[in-house]
From TrEMBL:
NCBIfam families membership: PRK05303.1 (NF003676)
Source organism per UniProt: Rhodovulum marinum
GO cellular component labels: bacterial-type flagellum basal body, distal rod, P ring; outer membrane-bounded periplasmic space
Family the entry assigns: Belongs to the FlgI family.
InterPro entries noted in UniProt: Flag_FlgI
Subcellular location: Bacterial flagellum basal body
MF terms in GO: structural molecule activity
Reported function: Assembles around the rod to form the L-ring and probably protects the motor/basal body from shearing forces during rotation.
Keyword Ribonucleoprotein set for record: no
Subunit architecture: The basal body constitutes a major portion of the flagellar organelle and consists of four rings (L,P,S, and M) mounted on a central rod.
Protein name: Flagellar P-ring protein
Amino acid sequence: MLRRLFLALLAVVLALPAGATPIRIKDLVEFDGVRGNDLVGYGLVVGLNGTGDGIRNAPFTEEIMSNILERLGVNVTGEQFRPKNVAAVFVTATLPPFSRAGSQIDITVSAIGDAKSLLGGTLVMTPLNAADGQIYAVAQGTVIAGGASAEGDGASVVQGVPTAGVIPSGARVEREIDFDFSTLTSLRLALRSPDFTTAGRIEAAINNSYGRGVARMIDAGTVLLDIGATRAPSPAHALQRIEAITVEPQRKARVVVDQRSGTIVMGEDVRISRVAVSQGNLTLRIEEEPLVVQPNPFSQGQSVVVPRTNATIQEEPGIGLAEIDEGASLSEVVAGLNALGVSPRDMIDILKSIKAAGALHAEFVVR
């Protein structure tokens, strides 16, 4: 199955037309100041069907439950209650840029005690704080757990992760980020993948659209934009036009392999110098077959275990000595190795050896 999938992906790669595909600037950069903010809160999920925290193992659950009840006017000081349908959770979310008070955002709920499942639970009103300690949103709603669990007297089964879930639009924004975007006179464009060639092309594309002097490349990851020189009514109008400009990005030659799954992903600019490759596999097999030796009848001896080991070495057929021409692309090399019947895992070992020999001219990433 893995081999057929690899062949299909390789066929798609080889069928792609040469040359880079124009990409919008909005997909290549991050605009300075236009970013989300992480929020976190500590709350309580109620309504669980006996799958909540054990109060003895999670005393913080009892503490927050007491605080919530006291805020609601229920005095539980000195009372002993150990319900099994509540669970303490962490609530996380990301406040999108330009979020306004009253808008709703998605949240993630994760159990922090020994609760077995959050399925069917309801998150009680939970304030969400940012890094500055201020409350920016309040979360509440029914948890949608991502798994299921069941157990009997002698066995249990768990599917997915029932101790974590999400609440779509489960938090309402109560405070806005104090950021006046309309007063900006300059703005930095931060490239997601820093590259001098790509940054230069972004600078040239913006200047060709607005005129010289609007954009200036600072380094491989930054392009400075002079909003005043664009003569746009506002920075938002300027970025509306700039983010739609297309640029052909330049990427580093890179090969990424995953040894666990045997996946190989390569760029079209990867090149290999002239090199010879020979590959074979050795299989070492060791079998232990201990032999028990019994004493003679009516003797005073004892049974003795005599070790006996069978060791064999088998060489599996691989590829013979093959020569790769100068300047061949990696896709051509992989296609040739695949035609010889080399498995993806053996192909990864061959590529690692070619890289070690200095013939693979690309960044080699192994995961």
